[in-house]
Design goal:
The complex is a heterodimer of chains A (303) and B (225). By secondary structure, chain A is α/β, with parallel strands linked by helices. Chain A contains 10 helices and 14 strands. In chain A, the strands form 3 sheets. A 6-stranded mixed β-sheet of chain A has the order 6-7-8-3-9-10, sandwiched between helices. In chain A, strands 2-1-4-5 form a 4-stranded antiparallel β-sheet, covered by helices on one side. In chain A, strands 12-13-11-14 form a 4-stranded antiparallel β-sheet. Chain B has one domain (10-223). Chain B contains 9 helices and no strands. The longest helix of chain B is centred in the C-terminal third of the chain and has 32 residues, at 192-223. The radius of gyration of chain B is 19 Å and the shape is elongated. The chains are: A alpha/beta (303), B mainly alpha (225).
Chain lengths: 303, 225
């Protein structure tokens, strides 16, 4: 997905309008989000921000309280039977019953979905060093490490020929090497039908997943606080470093600011770069951007 | 736009929901309780040196039925709550709620068959003189009817939201299953065929009611939330 957004046909794989979900102690939304088609979108937010709830609603695991969702340009969430076949979903934990093993998962997935490819599942299991579904000796999920459980979930969902992948925290329990393989698999998934397939995933491992993130939706306290293509967001914000003495002068332009006895650092809008010329500025990484945006949201919430 | 055919048949629904065919589930529901019961009986005989301790009274029927009921409860509760292992996966499979409803109805029928089969095996063993379970084959119908009534009541476990309450409810049912042979033997001196038919009819109504009501309950109170 190296193309710039202007060069690809811009249609949204998912359009969400006024989506809400009410719990006794938490409210999601009202959310308005458009997820561009053909890209990998990260949902970024602190614990309890509403990422998992949003993913569960998108995938039909949890019912919404109100609002509208439009998938692939024409399907609504009333068209679940079509969506179930086109969306590959996996949760962050306990996705399958714990007494299942690779062989059982392959058998069940073949029955449960029309587009599951057993050979591809076998290949993916091999690539993720899980063994084979045809091995005589099979290990149940309950005996696998969290990382291997997640690898199993990823292999099962990628073995389906879907148009949209929705994964909740796929990287959280993976080691760095497996995260790298996951990024590679995302890229292969997207490039297999360039511009037609999309990925949505939530993550806390922002630095590791930056390479595979094209678009980001930042969430805090059940609300979307920022969204956009990564390159656009990196152009919109700057990281500012300066002497502690200049901190007060910079404060009106800073969105967030950390200070110590000698220096300050924070995030500001790039449009204020000229007003902050006495300080050093740089393009933020996704990790810096996320911390800045989420910290600002937290401060606003407190205020 | 072309609509996708999104329904699984009954056999497929059970396979997706449980990972096993309905026949394997019935086999397991018959074999495991019997094997565990006879292993327990053997252990008791070995430590007591007295064969009659297990075979000359109603322990076999009581233990086997209690164990079978616990297994039935485990099967009934599979994937109902999305927080449980497999709960989220099972909500995204072909057919969605329809798959749940079909698998629930099938496993309820499977439970009924397994109870009839297991008690039937016990009756055959008694007829062969190998064991004495519920004091006479004449009371077999009454024994099965009482067991099926408890299976019907077990179905309501799916409507109990609280984990603790559902375990208490299961404990009461397992306890009730364990005393069925005693109740059958001690309380029904006569007219046991008449009572067997009456309780059997009540059990069928209870099983149908609990299946329909729990499917509705899960749809309204759990699935669509």
């Amino acid at each position: 997905m190296a193309e710039k957004k202007g060069e690809v046909k811009m249609e949204n794989v998912l359009e969400i309008k006024g989506l809400t979900k009410e719990y006794k102690d938490f409210r999601l939304g009202s959310l308005d989000i458009e997820i561009p088609c053909g890209f990998s979108t990260a949902l970024i937010g602190a614990n309890g921000a509403g990422k998992t709830t949003l993913i569960d609603i998108i995938c039909g695991v949890t019912a919404k309280s109100s609002g509208e969702m439009k998938f692939f340009g024409s399907f609504t969430d009333n068209d679940r039977s079509d969506l179930r076949n086109r969306i590959g979903y996996c949760s962050s934990a306990n996705y399958f019953p714990l007494d299942w093993n690779l062989k059982k998962i392959a058998g069940v997935m073949e029955t449960a979905f029309d587009n599951f490819d057993r050979q591809r599942f076998t290949d993916l299991c091999g690539r993720l060093k899980l063994g084979s579904p045809s091995d005589k000796k099979q290990k149940k999920l309950v005996k696998m490490s969290d990382g291997n459980k997640m690898r199993t979930y990823i292999a099962s969902v990628l073995a389906r020929d879907t148009d949209l992948l929705v994964l909740d925290e796929p990287a959280s329990s993976l080691d760095p090497l497996a995260r790298d393989i996951l990024c590679e698999m995302f890229r292969e998934y997207l490039s297999a039908r360039d511009g037609e397939r999309s990925v949505i995933f939530s993550t806390h491992n922002i630095a590791d997943m930056e390479f595979v993130t094209d678009y980001a939706v930042f969430m805090a306290e059940g609300q979307v606080v920022e969204k956009g293509f990564i390159e656009d967001l990196k152009a919109k914000y700057i990281i500012v470093h300066g002497d502690a003495a200049d901190c007060k002068k910079a404060a009106p332009y800073m969105l967030t600011c950390n200070t110590n006895s000698t220096a300050f650092e924070g995030i500001a809008l790039a449009e204020n770069a000229e007003s902050l010329s006495y300080a050093a500025t740089e393009k933020p990484t996704l990790q810096q951007l996320s911390i800045g945006i989420l910290r600002k949201a937290e401060e606003n919430e407190k205020a | 736009m072309k609509k996708h055919d999104d329904k699984l048949n009954v056999i497929e629904s059970v396979k997706v929901w449980y990972g096993f065919s309905i026949f394997t589930i019935i086999l397991a529901l018959v074999a495991y309780p019997l094997l565990m019961t006879f292993a327990f009986a053997l252990f008791m005989i070995l430590i007591s040196g007295d064969r009659d301790i297990m075979f000359e009274n109603d322990f076999i029927g009581a233990i086997a039925l209690a164990m079978q009921l616990m297994l039935i409860a485990v099967i009934y509760l599979r994937g109902i709550k999305k927080e449980n292992p497999g709960g989220k996966f099972l909500r995204t499979v072909k057919g969605g709620f329809d798959t749940f409803a079909k698998s629930t109805a099938s496993t309820t029928l499977g439970s009924v068959i397994s109870v009839i089969l297991m008690t039937g095996i016990l009756a055959v063993l008694e007829y062969s003189g190998i064991i004495i379970t519920f004091f006479g084959l004449k009371r077999y119908l009454l024994y099965v009817s009482c067991a099926l009534l408890i299976v019907g009541l077990t179905g309501f476990m799916r409507c109990v939201s609280s984990y603790v309450l559902s375990m208490v409810y299961l404990g009461i049912l397992v306890g009730s299953a364990a005393i069925i042979p005693y109740v059958v033997n001690k309380l029904f001196y006569e007219k046991f065929i008449f009572y067997g038919v009456i309780i059997g009819a009540a059990a069928i109504v209870m099983i149908i009611m609990s299946t329909i009501l729990t499917i509705r309950f899960v749809k309204e109170r759990i699935w669509d939330r």
